[in-house]
Amino acid sequence: MKRKMKLVNDSRAVSPVIGVMLMVVVTVVLAAAVSSSSQGILDGTEQTPSAVFSAEIVKDINAKMGPTEGTMSYVNIKHISGDSIDTKDLMIITENPKARGGNGFREIYPNQVNTYTGNYNGTAPMWNQGGLFQSQSDSFFGEYSLEPGRSMMADDWSNYKMEAEWEYSEESEQWDYLCDGFEVEPENGQIISGMHAMFADWDSVESGDHLNIKIIHTPSQKVIFDSDVRVI
Fold first, then answer.
1. Which residues form the Archaeal Type IV pilin N-terminal domain (predicted)?
2. Model pTM score
3. In sequence order, which residues have a C-beta less than 8 Å from that of residue 120 and are 6 or more positions away?
């Protein structure tokens, strides 16, 4: 009788231990599952590149074009430091607060033709390699990568005849660059400068104005540059 009671007592003592062990096992399994799930989420998240940029906007400075004197305007965005970034993963949004009609924003997408000069059509801003854009390969926005020391640039010097005008569009019911009453189509040979492609109502811009430039990393949907740039 005593022996039987001892066995009963032993079995009762073991039961709580087994219960605790089972709880520990379940906890470990759950922790592993949560860790695996979290790692999967992290692996699927696009990392936002880290980079430092500077931007310069110049309006109507004196410039000599061959034998004649003239003026030119340009915007230059320079990658100062940080990660190398493929421009096909970038989008640029600019704002001209003074734009007539209240439509002061321009959106620049990679590999979407937005400028035609008579010599070439392509996507501004171009990779500033120090020569003529039309003679350089992979120079249009979306074709090159930015890395420290590289600049991307748009200008108006190569447009001797401007067809695009900032006007009210009856079709879209907003102000935009039009040619003969319709939205300008640079891919079809209608002339629009890089500066007009980059900024709404560029002709209204004066020295001392501030224009906003944002650069968005599209895979992560994060703004990696945002600056109000004073026009020189």
1. 12-96
2. 0.77
3. 133, 134
